[in-house]
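Format notes (please read before filing issues)

Several people have asked whether sequences and structure tokens are stored in separate files. They are not. Every record keeps both together, in the order shown below: the sequence lines, then the token lines. Line labels are part of the format and must not be stripped during preprocessing.
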Amino acid sequence: MKPVALLLMLFQLVGTAHARESVFAPTQALGDTELELKGTGDMYYARFIHVYDAALYGPAGLPAPMLLETGAPACLELVYRVGLDRDKFVLAAERILARQHGDLSSLRPRIDALHAAYRDVAEGDRYRLCYDPDAGTELALNDAPLVRVQGEDFARAYLGIWLGERPLSDSLRTALLDGG
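Then the structure lines:
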């Protein structure tokens, strides 16, 4: 490979990382709690379609890998780079939840409530999934709340799609939990 082409590729990678970081604020309010940015990452389909940028927020001083197991407040924000219809969200979530948990009967009514709230997204739209121990898990699209679901068990399972064992994407999980 020619040195000029290699240098251009390097600049493109650096520009992409900087652009992703600037998409997300360093902190985010959740009720009376201020959450700090724990990690960011990208989700790709078939390795070349950039689907969304993702950010994970949690309390200061709490390592990101501890968020799920402690039931601490947490927010996952997704900024879409392509348009998707709601059925794609439901299909992906159902597959990952079944792979991770098997029997979902105790969560089923709450999963269905959240899935019914999904809307189609266009490029630039933001989904935000936040768990507040006092208020439950809220799904918002472009800062407009769509649904609130109760239960720490639900939050642990649903955020686990991205953060748990056998997630949607291993590389995205690593980036979010390791400060990517």
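For reference, the curators noted about this record: The CA atoms of residues 39 and 179 lie 4 Å apart. The mean pLDDT is 89.
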